[in-house]
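User: Second chain of the day. Same drill as before.
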Amino acid sequence: MSHPGAHVPAFSDWIGWWTWDPLVLAGLAAGVAVYTRGALRLWSEAGVGHGLSPWRAVSYGAGIVVIAVALISPLDRASDVLFSAHMAQHELLMLVAAPLVVLGRPLVPSLWALPRRARVRALRATRPARVWRIVTSPFVALLVHAVTRIVWHVPALFDAALADDRIHAIQHLMFFGTAVVFWWALVYGRYGRAGYGVGVAFVFFTMLYSGLLGAVLSLGDHALYAHAEPTLQWGLDPVDDQQRAGLLMWIPAGIIMISVGLSIFAAWLGQSANRIGRSAHPGLTGRDAR
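Assistant: Same format as last time:
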């Protein structure tokens, strides 16, 4: 990662701060190409909107745009200097891009992008599906994502990611990958036997540990990470920058998770009310009960 000079650039200078990392661009282009090919092939056979709603394709595209903003926009270059920019990267990947990609249901167009024979073989292969169900089970997904976030915020590991592009890429992949698993379990896994209650607990625990991490950073009185030196070169206080990073993790992330938790809780109450209505009036259909 390159470090800019010892001054805050003018607004016009930010145009040259796009990093255009070829590996990131190649990955994003491949993701868009596969998804588009699969969606168009599916819709050509089943009709537009069948098997994959257009709004899901839009959601996936929005997720790709957010990943690009996080990894190739001036935010990426600023993350070499500012811990708050680095935190913004991570929050965009985990709290915005990951759920948008998950809502896009990328597995469906990915299968349809395959040749017919390969698609049939993939659908018949039960072992990968079993592994995916285990990985995206609520407790496994929550544990893996929580451990990943906490461990990577250990100062020695975080500083290693700052010092080595390869480690930094692994860090980003792990944050995004475990976030996809987390959101997949939250969005598609809550209808299992455990019901909506697990989803509420899921969100509460995530708010708890991420809020504690944010509090440690925002209330600390000394810099914990290696951003201190380049931040000082910009004429900024590293502790103030770290506190802003902590607030990013604490407040906006907390608002998002609270909103998700309330939505799940409302769905849970609605489900309970429907069950009570059906048990009180067993002879009524859903329409008559309404």
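The chain has 14 helices and no strands.

User: Great, on to the next one.
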